[in-house]
Amino acid sequence: MDPAVFEEWMMTILMTLLVGFMAFIVWDLAKKSKAGRFGTIILFSVLGLGVLAFVIKEVVIALVEQGG
Question: Domain containing 55: what range?
Fold first, then answer.
């Protein structure tokens, strides 16, 4: 297997696992701190913005590489 393909697969798989683990941590934090519905939504929104930024970066990189 080509190292570049392996790196791409591992990046996708490991980032998915990391985001899932972070979601579990935020859920546990919201539960233990009794954040309520609004606090939980805020916590997940902030996490979601970070994940969205990473996804947008990957899409932009893919579009730039295709155009070049």
Answer: 3-67
